[in-house]
């Protein structure tokens, strides 16, 4: 046999081994992705995908890194050979699921461990005091709630979804199942504002009543008094008397007398002779 034949056989065996090895790596990646998908589905309610599926997620990342390793010479077979790039797209979709749940936050500063510990203390208290949970377990609930608020503020709302779901369920049970959500409102400001508003109303209506009564009293006094002639009316009366003095001798002079009151206005001509007779009788 020629040496070239052996060389060709060796290359063929090498290519076959390479292809089988790459398929083996691809199969391992597929199994890891399948296990992670199954784990996420089984831990969706209540949500525990970050804690319950951490190993499966890390396995996906490791198997994908193996197949992308340049030393294995598998990249040319499975990557960038088509428009969809299915191997990468499948892995990215699973990674995106992990990222959207902010699962990495669970393992920063032992957040999930601290939260789980505090939550276990609270649930233990509730189980021991089912009828008096509101009074006996309020301190544990406040501590757990404050810890969650600190995480939420520190991470700008990007809290591990396992913790989010657990806290939401705890709050819901605390308020609805145990009926312990008693909002403490500060009534001081409301009471002060209500008192001031009531005082203003009382002063306003009292002042209005007093002013109205005074006006009615003044109106009654004016009705009881004798009507007085104003300066303009006095001038009118004087002019009338002057006109009477220049009348013909056979005419009886008259004086215009006028009385105005809020109720009515009347006008009557009084002969001057009657006025003189009246004055004479008074004088006598």
How would you describe this structure to a colleague?
By secondary structure, this protein is mostly helical. It has three domains: 1-101; 110-210; 231-283, no CATH class. 71% of the residues lie in helices and 5% in strands. It contains 13 helices and two strands, in the order H-H-H-H-H-H-H-H-H-H-H-H-E-E-H. It has helices at 3-42, 49-52, 54-68, 75-78, 86-100, 103-106, 111-128, 133-136, 138-154, 161-177, 188-224, 231-245, 272-283; strands at 254-260, 265-271. It has a two-stranded antiparallel sheet with strand order 1-2. A hairpin with a 4-residue loop joins strand 1 and strand 2 (265-271). The radius of gyration is 53 Å and the shape is elongated. The chain starts with a helix and ends with a helix. Keywords: Membrane, Signal, Transmembrane, Transmembrane helix. One of its GO terms (cellular component) is cytosol.
């Amino acid at each position: 046999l020629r040496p070239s034949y052996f060389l060709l056989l060796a290359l063929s065996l090498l290519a076959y081994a390479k292809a089988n090895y790459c398929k083996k790596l691809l199969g391992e990646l597929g199994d890891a992705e399948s296990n992670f998908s199954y784990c996420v589905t089984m831990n969706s309610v209540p949500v525990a995908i970050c804690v319950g599926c951490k190993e499966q997620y890390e396995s996906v990342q490791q198997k994908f890194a193996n197949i992308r390793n340049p030393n294995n010479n598998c990249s040319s077979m499975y990557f960038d050979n088509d428009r969809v790039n299915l191997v990468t797209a499948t892995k990215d979709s699973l990674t995106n699921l992990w990222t959207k749940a902010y699962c990495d936050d669970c393992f920063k500063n032992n957040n999930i461990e601290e939260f789980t510990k505090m939550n276990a203390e609270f649930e233990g208290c509730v189980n021991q005091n089912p009828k008096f949970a509101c009074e006996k377990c309020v301190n544990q609930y406040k501590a757990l709630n404050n810890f969650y608020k600190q995480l939420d503020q520190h991470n700008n709302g990007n809290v591990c979804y396992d913790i989010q779901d657990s806290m939401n369920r705890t709050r819901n049970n605390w308020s609805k199942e145990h009926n312990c959500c008693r909002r403490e409102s500060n009534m001081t400001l409301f009471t002060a504002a209500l008192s001031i508003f009531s005082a203003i109303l009382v002063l306003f209506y009292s002042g209005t009543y007093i002013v109205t009564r005074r006006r009615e009293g003044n109106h009654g006094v004016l009705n009881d008094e004798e009507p007085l002639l104003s300066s303009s009316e006095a001038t009118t009366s004087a002019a009338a008397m002057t006109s009477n003095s220049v009348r013909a001798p056979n005419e009886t002079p008259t004086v215009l007398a006028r009385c105005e009151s809020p109720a009515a206005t009347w006008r009557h001509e009084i002969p001057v002779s009657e006025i003189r007779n009246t004055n004479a009788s008074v004088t006598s």
